[in-house]
Automatic annotation (TrEMBL):
Its main location: membrane. InterPro entries: GPCR_Rhodpsn_7TM (IPR017452). It is a multi-pass membrane protein. Keywords: G-protein coupled receptor, Membrane, Receptor, Transducer, Transmembrane, Transmembrane helix. It is found in: Membrane. One of its GO terms (molecular function) is G protein-coupled receptor activity. This is G-protein coupled receptors family 1 profile domain-containing protein. It comes from Adineta ricciae (Rotifer).
Amino acid sequence: MSSTSDSVSSISYVTMQINRHVALVVLLFGTVGNIVNMIVLSEQTFNKIPCTNYLYWSSMSAVIYLWSALPTRILEGYSITWQVENGPMCKFRVYSISIAWAVAIWALVGASIDRFLCSSRLVARRQLSTLQMERRYIIVVFTFFTLLFIEVLYCFEAHVPNVPVACYGRNMICRIAIDWIYLLLIIILPSILLIAFGILTMRNIRTRVIRPTIGPMQNTVSNNTTNLPRNDERTLTKMLLVQVFIIFVVNLPFAIHRLYIGITANVTKSAYRLAVESLVFAIVLLTMSVTHTISFYSYVLAGTLYRTVFKRLARSYLHLT
């Protein structure tokens, strides 16, 4: 009995340290990376290009996601739990996380589709790559998930027993519905689309230099943005495929864990099992946040044009010559 109690205490201590320190590092690292990315992508060199606008919205949504999800975990590391035990705050927090998570992922899908359109040999397809199309896509995605996740405001409540966090689905129907929406619409379907359009884009750029079409809503931009070298386009496409791998591999365990917790919520669990589930949940949640943290650094640091703009902006902000 004493051995089990010691094990539970040890596991709880590890969970607490992960929430205190690892979550804070991920939050700071992700916030800085995404804000820098937003600054670079909003620069005049990029803000006329639909693809980079999709990436801008994805970065913005990632910041909202990180600040909706991780501060609560950090506070729980210091045994501060009022934020998950308050009913309205519980509902609003999960609602914000769900929408931000969905928009961040589907904005990447929009970027992948736009990259495919830009690389197509068909003029009609290239003409679909416009700022007007990008705005319509983001509005549709945001509106769809805002309406879809309204059920969160009913389903989630505070003080739910037998689950790793106090703020959770109130019954089995709610848990299964939300978990399957996460699994299908935020993990599996976006991953399939990203892989498909990534492959199609790579097939296109093998035979031609990408020349993004300036749509009717766009102004003329400099040559280095409208005629990107083939190597740069291949690099950006490979980076997007890396993000696909991260999204699918990192997010899938979270969805599986949510399904497991929902199915076993009515099962009587020992203190040791609950402690292990809380530890696994902390690890899975922080690992999933990597999707919204590390991937965006590749857009700033890996591409030649990104590095050029980033260095120029850094010199400007730091008043360097």
